[in-house]
Structure formats: C-alpha cells, structure tokens
Amino acid sequence: MSYLNFNSSNCRNCYKCLRECPVKAISVIDDKAQIIEDLCILCGHCANACRFNAKEVKDDREVVKKLLGSKKPIYVSLAPSFIASFDVKSFAAMENALKKLGFFFVEETAVGAAAITDEYKKLLKSGKYKNLIASACPAIVRLISQYYPQALPCLAPVDSPMVAHAKQLKKKFGKNASIVFIGPCLAKKREAAESGVIDAALTFEELAAMFSENGVVPEAELMDTPQALRARYYPINRGIIKSFDGFVDGYEYLSVDGVNRSKNVLENIDELTGMFIEMHACEFSCINGPCSLNKNGGFFKATERVRSFTKQGMEKEAYPVLDGDFSHKYERVSSRYVVPPEYEIRRILEATGKFKPEDELNCGACGYPTCRDKAIAVYNNMAQIDMCVPYMREKAESLSFDIIQNSPNGILAVDENFRITDINEKAAQLLDIPRTGCKGELIERYFNPTDFYVVAADGNPIDNKTLELEKSGARVEMSIRKVEGQNILFCIMKDVTKEALDQERLDKLKTDTYRTTDEVIGKQMRVVQEIASLLGETAAETKIALLKLKSTLAQTEDKK
C-alpha cells in the first residue's frame, strides 16, 4: 500500500526531495521522482521539501466517512499536539468539534502515553539495558529496524502511545470498537494499518479538510478543567523525559530530534553507556510533523502552547493509568538494497568520467552525499547516470563548444553592454579580427552595431539580412536574436561571399550578352533595311518588327 508518493506531472526533476531524504528511498527514473516504499521510513521530509506541491499522501477521509456512516460508535484517539495545530485552548473544544462530525467518543492519545511512560520506568529499573531508546515515532522505529539493526536491542520493546491507547479503548469499550487515530504524523498511517487495533489514521490536514467540508469550526474560547496528565508533553522535545514524575538513577536522559541527528546517535550507540535516549524523526518533535498545521515557523510558540496546556491541569487529580499488555518485540526489516562489488561501482563511476578518486567531486547536486553512493543507487535501478550534474554540464558544454567552433557559419554573442562574450573562428575570420583578443571588446570596434542596438531595443529578431563587412569585404547573411530570459544577443553570419561574387559574374555576363545582342541586332536592322528597300518593303515596317524582337529579348532577360 502506498502512503506517500509524488505527482509526476508536478515533479520538476530538481532532486530536492532526494537531497532531503535521510535514507535515499527515492528513485529518479525518466526524470521523475518516485518513493521506494519498502525503503521509506515515512518521515515526510521529502514531501515538505517539495516546493512544487507534488506530494500525494494516502487520504483516509473516505474510510473514516464510511465508518461514521455505519451507525456504530466510532472512537477517537487524538494526539496531544492538536493544541499546536488548531486554534483552540482546550481539549473540550476539539472533543465538541469531533462529535459534530459524528464521532462518539474522543480521548487524548496521551492517556496511552502515560501507560508507556510507566513501561519505560519498569525497563530502566530492570537494569537490563546498557542504553534504552524510547520513541513514540514510527519513522524512528522503522529507521532502526531497517537501517540500524545493531541498535534494535536498545529499542524499548513496548507499543507506541497510539497502539497502547487503542488497546485501552478496546479493553474499555469492547474488542470490536472502531478506532480512528488523529495526529500530525504521516508514518502513523502505516503503523495503524499494521497494528491490528486501529481502523484508520487521519492527519491534522485531513481533519481540517473534514471540518471545512462540514462547516465545523472548533470553539477557540471553549475551556475545560483537564485532569493532570504529564504525558501531554510527548509531542515536544524532551517530552517523554518530562512525562516522568521521577528519574531512575544510573542513566543520563537525552532528547534527539531530526533523522540525521538520530542517525548519528545510532551509528555510535555501541560506544554509549547509561543513556536513556528519546528520539523524534521531526525537528522540534511532533509539533512539527509533516502533516501538522504549524507551517509558519512558530515552533517555539507551538512548544510553549503544549507546555502551557499540560500545566493547566497539573494541580488536578491525575488521569488513572490503565494496566494492560503493552509489550512489543521489534523485528529487523529486510531490505532489497544491494551494495555491488567494487568493479561494478568503478564501471558506473567511469561512465561519468570519474576514473580516479580526485575525479569524484561529491558535490551532492544529484541528491546523494557521494559519487559512490550515487553509483550504488544506479546499480540498484534507483538513479540514472545522467543525474550527475557536473558531468552532464561538462558534456553539454563540450558538445556545444564543438558545434559552435566547427560551424561553417560565423557565430558571436554580445552582452547587454554590446561587448563580445563569445566568438568562433569563422566569425573572427569574417570580421578579420583576432579571435582571442576581441572578447570583452565593444562590437562597434569591428563593424556597424546599429542592427544589434535595434534588436536589443525592440526584441524583434533580424533574419538573413545581407550586408558587406567593411573590414574584410566579406558578404554575409546576418541573423540576430535576443536570448529569452538573458541580456544576450546571439548573431549568426552565413558566409555568402562566393555566392555573391558568382552572382555578380553572372550578372556581368548577362549584361555583356545583352549589349552584344543589342549591337548585333542594330547591325542586322541596317542590313535588313537595305534588303527590304531592294525588295520594295518599307523601312518603317521592318524597323517595327526588329524593335519588337529587341523588346522581347529585353523582357526575357529581365525575367531571368
């Protein structure tokens, strides 16, 4: 099942999503990005990085609408980060709005989180763990299970708060109770589908759309008196740690946010001792989830909203923590990603002109951190050779250079100040100037620049204008165009000197032939007149006939 992908029609072949993907679970084939589902941890970084709005998130609204239309009660587990995404001041405001949509019962996922905090404390007290990793984030769990299996023994073997809460709801309302989770997390969709206890997972974006579709507006000023629940801290940095009401001795308590920082810790987990580490895939934790509504950079404000909301009921009676079996054994997730033998990597690198280590720029333009990583992706059919931007640029420049320099036409370019920026050998020959010495010089130094001024002013091109170059005497057909989007004028000069000289010789030959013909006819007229007079014909009639013949010859010559 696909939970996230890209709309290929919106994809612009920029590789930004690939650069942002912490596990490079994106293939770029035929210049279009596609997510490789079995490698993706669903952190959502790629979708948020795409400025062309190409993301396509699995939409569970129709599933939820069918559940609501079934006439059976539907129970909601609402992530406590709602306070940072919706303009409300209380849980009661969200509860009231959700019930207007048709949900029967609404409770905060923090109730399940409180039970999981107790499980963490039990694990720490057991003394079995050199280090303990705690996370409510399915993206982090997937990262460890698939990419850092050596850290699996450190991952707390307990349910996420979402699954724990769903189990609590089923224990309270019956095993057939239909449960919908609502939160800011994309990865929760896959976790919900695999949990066996949750029917659907809505994002805050989807919930906002449902509110809009049904004309429901949560009451911003509606207040309540919530019971104390320290687990409401979960969606912020150090939230799991702050949910403890006391710490187990012998451990340092550390919070790590962001996949890349989490990867750094996981790579060095064996070198750590006595660490309790809470991990979040999103920077600033769940309040900055990929499907949250906190999109204006107000992460510190969002954090303060969660802190204030949690403190509201701290002096009240605490939520009761329900018992249950919240254990979960996380297994290693296999990957089809193959690291090829060295000779295959070398073969792919050499295809992009990288024959020795110093040829490997590792610029990251393709989205991969190193040229070798990109070569491995090519081997796995996740990338293409031509994604190497420096190689393709060098290839294009080399091709265009060869075409321009070997063109039979003169080619030159001038900038907005009418200075020569590039010129080929043929153009230098036609202008009778040194090719290497004219760059940067004003075009007016070499010939009349009026046509360049006209094109620069009105943008209309000049096509095949015939002129004679003053210095060399060469005859050319000149075309000048303004390069769209750039202040550059591009000129092509076709050398027509030979054709012009041939035409002049032909014209001279025709003129000489006409003159000779005219002289012959003149002589013949006099002879004919003499003969005509002897024969009794009038000279006038003969003259008229010969003049008609001469006119016909002249017209024929003009048509040629």
Characterize the structure shown:
The chain has 560 residues and is of the alpha/beta class. It contains 20 helices and 16 strands. The strands form five sheets. The protein has a five-stranded antiparallel sheet. Strands 6-5-8-9 form a four-stranded parallel sheet, sandwiched between helices. α6 (110-126) packs across α8, α14 crosses α15 and α19 (497-535) packs antiparallel against α20.
> What is the overall number of helices?
20
Shape assignment: elongated
Q: Determine the strand fraction and express it as a percent band.
A: 5-15%
Q: Which regions are unreliable across 5 or more consecutive residues at pLDDT < 50?
A: none
Mean pLDDT: 89
* Rounded radius of gyration (Å): 41 Å
Largest sheet: 5 strands, antiparallel
Q: Please give the alpha-carbon distance between the first and last residues.
A: 77 Å
Helicity level: 40-55%
**Computed structural class:** alpha/beta
- The neighbouring-strand order within the major sheet is 13-12-16-15-14
Concise account of the structure shown:
Helices cover 41% and strands 14% of the residues. It contains 20 helices and 16 strands.
Indicate the topology:
Layout: E1 4-6, H1 16-20, E2 26-29, E3 32-35, H2 45-49, E4 55-57, H3 61-68, E5 74-78, H4 82-85, H5 91-101, E6 105-108, H6 110-126, E7 131-134, H7 138-147, H8 161-173, E8 178-183, H9 187-195, E9 200-203, H10 204-213, H11 239-242, E10 252-257, H12 259-267, E11 275-280, H13 299-312, H14 342-350, H15 371-379, H16 389-405, E12 410-414, E13 420-423, H17 425-431, H18 450-458, E14 462-468, E15 475-482, E16 489-495, H19 497-535, H20 539-559
Parallel strand pairs: 5-6, 5-8, 7-11, 8-9, 10-11
Antiparallel strand pairs: 1-4, 2-3, 12-13, 12-16, 14-15, 15-16
